[in-house]
């Protein structure tokens, strides 16, 4: 494990937008950060995805950060904790939403066949969401599952509102196309718009 300290000139170059300095920071901290995220999330692929989100966010927000050389490392590890916990909360919300949708229909008197059809539909939706590219999935989750506005999502991810809108349209289209393979397009569209 690399325990080397960050040089102040590298830090200043990074804040001023130097990509090589950013690369040095990535190489210096990525292994430790990945281990910390994995300790929290217990999933290697998701940990790598969260680490990448962290470094993208760090790069995009570098000019707006009110940190100094002395506070950089503690800020970085606060980001690790925050993003990891946000990911855990998002998974809990997603699972709760899926459980709520499944349970609400099951409470009605339905035949066993209808119950399994609905369960399959929800599983297809979940699969379709999980197949989205990471940023599109994150935008869909933030807007549709967490109820955030396009503006809030653009602020969180450091992208334009039009990008949020375009990605959301693409996500919905991808989910609809995936669902159409199972002849469930009408049900999926209804569920998506109730989110």
UniProtKB/TrEMBL annotation:
Keywords: Sigma factor, Transcription, Transcription regulation
RNA polymerase sigma-70 region domain segment(s): 26-93
Transcription in keyword set: yes
Ranges for domain RNA polymerase sigma factor 70 region 4 type: 124-169
Keyword Transcription regulation: yes
UniProt cross-references to SUPFAM superfamilies, sorted A to Z: Sigma2 domain of RNA polymerase sigma factors (SSF88946), Sigma3 and sigma4 domains of RNA polymerase sigma factors (SSF88659)
InterPro entries: RNA_pol_sigma-70-like, RNA_pol_sigma-70_dom, RNA_pol_sigma70_r2, RNA_pol_sigma70_r4_t2, RNA_pol_sigma_r2, RNA_pol_sigma_r3/r4-like, WH-like_DNA-bd_sf
Family: Belongs to the sigma-70 factor family. ECF subfamily.
Protein name per the record: Sigma-70 family RNA polymerase sigma factor
Taxonomic path: Bacteria, Pseudomonadati, Bacteroidota, Sphingobacteriia, Sphingobacteriales
